[in-house]
Amino acid sequence: MGLQITRTSAPVGAIVTGLDVDAISPDDADALYAAWLKYGVLVFKGCVSSPEQHIRLTEVFGDTELHPVVHLRLPDEPRIIGLAANGGQPVAADDPDADKLVGVIPWHSDLSYMEVPTRGALLRAITIPEKGGYTGWIDTIDLYKRLPVEVRTKIQGLRITHSYRTAHLAQSMVKGSADLFPDSSLPLVSVHPENDQPVLNISPSSAKEITGLPPEEAQQLLDYLKDFACREEHAYIHHWEPGDVVLWDNWRTLHSALGHLKRYPRYMQRTTLKSWMKLGEWLVYDENGEISQEERERRERLAAEMA
Known about the structure:
The protein is of the alpha+beta class. It has one domain (4-306): Clavaminate synthase-like (Double-stranded beta-helix), CATH 3.60.130. The chain is built from seven helices and 18 strands. The strands form four sheets. Strands 1-2-3-15-7-17-5-4 form an eight-stranded mixed β-sheet, with helices on one face. A four-stranded antiparallel β-sheet has the order 6-16-8-14. A four-stranded antiparallel β-sheet has the order 13-9-10-18. It is globular, with a radius of gyration of 20 Å.
């Protein structure tokens, strides 16, 4: 049958079947890239079974880059990171924590706290839980279009601060310091450079504050946008099957790991696409152009943790 791309019934995403990763033609590569820009998320069924094929498929969409959290990288292939709750190991069914929900990562866009956010990523299921372990995606272009007109008008020209510390403390999957990176300021609304669509830059787990409004009004707006962004009707929820790989456009989507019971193992591997768009500005300087007191304190905390 050859390559088939079928839109999901959700507001985001398409399913890709019939792809031979070891023999991708230029026409297939062009069709896949166009579909990625159109749908935001592509779900590849049954076409990747090795790290080498994972890398090969990734490179259809751009250059790979190393994830900045070094301890997540695989020792023998640093372009791939491993993601697992509980070390990827199950616990006995009679363990008191067997029915504890683990592996939850709230709605976010990757590296939203960096000056240059990730272009995209491809996530591959290695070990799938018997129950749960789903992942969801939401399109922030679609979110912007769904906002009431008065809200779209209000948010023009405002900026939002995203914080690694805020995001890190909101999840339990990724260990290590909460002070690896400073806060970043970016436009609340930007334009996607490859499809010219407005994007709502609300990464709920890392969103710290909105600037450009009085504090109380800014907090109310932030709370509204975070609640609006995470509504279930906006999401595509993927139920993983063996051989699945999901690609997302990180410039226009949020995603969330919905968790699974601790009695079940779950292990995923992920590649990251190199970005070329500088969107944020790290907030490391005060009004005099000097390193701010907050930034000095952050660096001191990090140095103490690393000692």
